[in-house]
Specification:
With 319 residues, the chain is mainly beta. Helices cover 6% and strands 70% of the residues. The strands form four sheets. It has a 13-stranded parallel β-sheet with strand order 1-3-5-7-9-11-13-15-20-23-25-27-29, with no helix packed on it.
Length: 319
């Protein structure tokens, strides 16, 4: 009897082990000239590619266990590439209602998550590279000619970028752990029951973080704005807002803001509401604080802090 029980347990254990090895791929193609390639090595990986349109290309490669990859293309001439090495990673590339967009996601490590969506335009390019564990990245493009490059090296970093408009460029680089970067160009929200859209066109934003626990935020609406945040150290906070705070639908144009932080626990904030304003904040040391608020047109501010525990506040307007 015992032999029978042990034999049955071994049999069912063998079945479970074989089932766990099964990788799964699901593909759907509607249209002409579409190409899909999926390669999976490991245990319990899941790959899905959906193509509706013409001349789309999807490539999925997964090496490891329990990874999930999904490519959805609804339009013409899209290219989606997902490459994953490790365990428990998740990647989604979503392209719709347009043409010629490119999405590239590369994950090396465990438990990483990426989500890329591009729609209602053409010629957008999103690239996400994650090396490490438990990183998260989200990129959304609504418009044409937008470019985003995200690189995360380390563990538990988070990045978010959304662009409403055309020809915006964003670069996010995170080296270390627990860093957070958030870039918003244009917006799409409701007010009093009506949808309001504020677009950003031809703007540039760059965030570079090296250290632990840094936080950076950039918000832009309007034309040809530029923003740059560089953080080297731990626990720094930086924020740049270049948009109208006085009226919905208004925008700020041709503003430039730069924040540089080297050290720990520094805080910097720039707010520019108007056109042709410029602001630079440079902090070297620890626990410094700088705040700049400029309302109107053609203001300029420069703050340089060297040392520890310094505080500076600048407020300028045309009134």
């Amino acid at each position: 009897m015992k032999k029978t029980i042990f034999s049955l347990l071994a049999f069912f254990a063998c079945i479970a082990w074989v089932a766990a090895q099964n990788n799964t791929h699901t593909g759907n193609q509607t249209g002409n000239g579409n190409t899909a390639t999926a390669t999976q090595a490991g245990l319990a990986n899941l790959a899905t590619d959906n193509q509706n349109g013409n001349d789309n290309n999807s490539t999925i490669g997964q090496d490891g266990d329990m990874n999930k990859a999904k490519s959805t293309q609804d339009g013409d001439g899209y290219t989606s590439t997902i490459t994953t090495t490790g365990n428990g990673n998740s990647a989604l590339n979503y392209q719709y209602s347009g043409s010629g967009d490119i999405s590239t996601t590369t994950q090396t490590g465990d438990g990483n998550y990426s989500w890329s969506a591009q729609g209602y335009g053409s010629g957008n390019d999103a690239e996400i590279t994650q090396t490490g564990d438990l990183n998260e990245s989200t990129v959304g493009h609504l418009g044409s000619g937008n470019t985003t490059d995200v690189t995360q090296t380390g563990d538990e970093n988070t990045s978010w970028h959304e662009a409403y408009g055309d020809d915006n460029t964003v670069s996010i680089e995170q080296i270390g752990d627990d860093n957070n970067a958030d870039v918003r160009q244009g917006s799409d929200y409701g007010y009093a029951g009506f949808p309001i859209e504020e677009f950003s066109n031809g703007s540039t934003a760059n965030i570079s973080q090296e250290g632990i626990g840094n936080d950076a935020f950039i918000e832009q609406t309007g034309e040809e704005n530029g923003a740059d945040i560089d953080q080297l150290g731990d626990g720094n906070e930086a924020s740049i807002s270049q948009r109208s705070a006085t009226a919905l639908g208004n925008a700020s144009n041709a503003n430039v803001a730069d924040i540089f932080q080297e050290g720990d626990l520094n805080t910097a904030e720039v707010s520019q509401d108007g056109d042709f304003n410029g602001s630079t904040i440079s902090q070297t040391g620890d626990m410094n604080s700088a705040t700049v608020g400029q309302t109107g047109d053609s203001h300029s501010s420069t703050i340089t802090q060297t040392g520890n525990g310094n505080t500076a506040t600048v407020t300028q307007s045309n009134n």
